[in-house]
């Protein structure tokens, strides 16, 4: 081995796709940058994101306390509908923003699973949204 730089074109593609998705979803560049840093450090989460870019569906291999990214996506969608009191998903419900939110929630949940399991299972009530 000559000590050269290892170039991973797949991660470059993921980086470009991530920020394009984030721009489309209306996410703040700083928020995106922090999430990207977390994804880069976690091979499982990066695999999940690359799969999402390729297939526009979640792989759901990464789990925390039995919860997958799809579970977190559905939880966010339910919260969106509850907050807006509409009961169904309208065009204002940005699916890409919710997918990115599911990735953010999974990253945070892996660091503090008790807090997130409590949020997922206890219900927040209308006055605690």
Based on CA atoms alone, the radius of gyration comes out at 16 Å
Low-pLDDT stretches are: 125-129
The main sheet comes to:
none
In percent terms, what proportion of residues is strand? under 5%
Structural class: mainly alpha
SSE string: HHHHHH
Number of strands: 0
**CA-based shape:** globular
Rounded mean pLDDT is 85
The span between the termini is 55 Å
Count of individual helical segments: 6
Helix content: 55-70%
Please characterize this protein's 3D structure:
The protein is mainly α and 129 residues long. The protein has helices at 9-25, 29-40, 43-55, 69-84, 95-111, 113-122. Helices cover 66% and strands 0% of the residues. Helix 1 (9-25) packs across helix 3 and helix 5 (95-111) packs across helix 6. The chain is globular. The model is unreliable at 125-129 (pLDDT under 50).
Question: Secondary structure elements and their pairing?
Answer:
Elements: H1 9-25, H2 29-40, H3 43-55, H4 69-84, H5 95-111, H6 113-122
Can you give keywords for this protein?
disordered C terminus, globular, mainly alpha, 6 helices
Task: Produce a short descriptive summary.
Helix content is 66%, strand content 0%. The protein is mainly α and 129 residues long.
